[in-house]
Amino acid sequence: TPFLFSSKHHYFTLQKLQYFLSHINIARLALMGSTSSSSVLSILLLPLLILLLLPSMIITTSANPFHQDFEITWGDGRAKILNDGELLTLSLDKASGSGFQSKNEYLFGKIDMQLKLVPGNSAGTVTAYYLSSKGSAWDEIDFEFLGNLSGNPYILHTNVFSQGKGNREQQFYLWFDPTADFHTYSILWNPQRIIFSVDGTPIREFKNMESSSVPFPKNQPMRIYSSLWNADDWATRGGLVKTDWTQAPFTASYMNFNADACVWSSGSSSCASTSSTSSSNSWLSQELDSASQKRLQWAQKNYMIYNYCSDTKRFPQGLPPECFTS
């Protein structure tokens, strides 16, 4: 887990700090070429000066406070925005769960959110984090985290809906404990593909296969939603394991939301006037390079536990067409 240097809403990873300090050492070595007392004093004071200036020198992308981008939509006080907007928590008890949604709608984007899931015996609970439009022919891109008994792994459930049709589930175990710390879950959605990633590792790619008559979400703007709710009728072992309410309240936590995305407002996109080839919108044409494809293959080989494209019993009349073209 990367160390995070925090100055209000700015974050500096340990790797970047090490890179930065290596350049300080280079500067110090350069100064060592001089033997004057003033140069020696400069050498000694340089690290202190850098540390004093470091917060103002951080130029990495900062996360907005949650109350700027989101609104709590249900839960009667069970959802809370804390720490000056840096942290959002959802809670579930026997009476109710809770949820929130983005203030903006998006038509394509790169969405990142850090989550720390319900610890301990989370069986029966579902933490959902997804994009969705409205209406009976809605589009949707899903991350759902299915709780489990203590000591058993969470199941990460993914799905893609287009024009109200889903049934495109892929499920994974994770290669870490998602309750011990925050991890980044990302959705890249552009006109050519949807890529699901965990801590920068792609786990699923759903390509635009409209040429093979496969609907693809590309015309309906979507909001970001998240909720924590009881689904013990199906979530854990098909509903065999029920929620243990003596463990309530169950809590999931969120931080460091970032959306590099096209905001939809009044019938138009904020990206309409910019080029998709510009550096700021490079994600609009992004695809998996060879290294990313290898990481995708690694994740699917070692951690995928269900793939609708392999479920011939579920589709006795034949697998969906995208299963032959993906």
UniProtKB/TrEMBL annotation:
Entries under Pfam families matching the protein: Glyco_hydro_16, XET_C
Gene Ontology BP term (one): cell wall organization
Keyword line: Apoplast, Cell wall, Cell wall biogenesis/degradation, Disulfide bond, Glycoprotein, Glycosidase, Hydrolase, Membrane, Secreted, Signal, Transferase, Transmembrane, Transmembrane helix
Record carries keyword Transcription regulation: no
Subcellular location: Secreted, Cell wall; Secreted, Extracellular space, Apoplast
Transmembrane segments: 40-59
Post-translational changes noted in the entry: Contains at least one intrachain disulfide bond essential for its enzymatic activity.
Domain GH16: 60-254
The protein's role, per its UniProt record: Catalyzes xyloglucan endohydrolysis (XEH) and/or endotransglycosylation (XET). Cleaves and religates xyloglucan polymers, an essential constituent of the primary cell wall, and thereby participates in cell wall construction of growing tissues.
Gene Ontology molecular function: hydrolase activity, hydrolyzing O-glycosyl compounds; xyloglucan:xyloglucosyl transferase activity
E.C. number(s) listed in UniProt: 2.4.1.207
One GO CC annotation: apoplast
Protein name as it appears in the record: Xyloglucan endotransglucosylase/hydrolase
CDD domains, per database record: GH16_XET (cd02176)
Originating species: Juglans regia
Highest rank taxon of the organism: Eukaryota
Glycosylation, residue list: 148
Protein family per UniProt: Belongs to the glycosyl hydrolase 16 family.
Positions annotated as active site in the UniProt record: 140 (nucleophile), 144 (proton donor)
